[in-house]
Amino acid sequence: MGRLKLVYHERQGMQVLKELVHNYDAVTSDRVRVMNRVKALYRGRGIPCAGPDVYYKRNRSVWLKKLVEVGQRQRAEFFYQQLDHLSGLCRESRRAMLAEAQRHAAYKIIRQVSVLGPVRTAQIMAAAVTPHRFRTKRQFLPSIGLGVITRTSSDYELVRGRMQRRQKVVGTRGLNQNYSHRLKYVFKSAAIDGMRREPFRHYYAQLKDKGMRLEMARLTLARKIAAVTLAIWKRGKGFDALKLKAATR
Q1: What's the pTM?
Q2: Partner of 200 for a Cys bridge, out of 9, 151, 194, 247, CB 3.0 to 4.6 A?
Q3: In the predicted structure, residue 22 carries a pLDDT above the cut 50
Q4: Cα separation of 223 and 237, whole Å?
Q5: Cα separations (Å) of 9 from 15, 53, 54, 233, 240?
Q6: Same domain, 25 and 72
């Protein structure tokens, strides 16, 4: 009937890295949640606590004195204990994740992209597994939520009893909704770094000089970083910044 769809099954030995990346993401999220609870406790009592100073061990006695009620102070102490424990787990989980990622040849290849640090590289490897899953960037970009949708429900019309495509100007309908949330976050955050770091800063500046809106320039930069990552990963060759600059001329 032609109703079956192709599904990828991992055969590259990335299962250990996948689990370690999941663990790192979970522990990091838990740590951020506790940090938010600490600040919420102070803000709920009208105590300003902007910045990271409220988390530091050397300043905790000062911050605890600002909580007048005993129950509030004890609650804050429990939050700080959770934060200390989760901070240690974050360091350990990060160390284990990077140690496993560095065992794979793809790590050194992807790390050549300046805006992809160790953690982002490990997350890309765990989520994508292998670049050969994607024939070109046209398959890779939708998988990370950066594929531009141009189709609509009115692309075809019935003419004389037969379906045919409408003759109309192609319009964009936003980005695709089915994607890897981890990979989209990685490349969006990499694009923010690329706005300030070479060689992608020059590419971003060129887009703005052409009159492109800032949000579209950031999206285009994220797509460019993703395409470059896929290309060098597939070829197994080094990243050439000169080619990127030449493409913007």
Answers
A1: 0.83
A2: 194
A3: yes
A4: 20
A5: 11, 46, 46, 19, 32
A6: yes
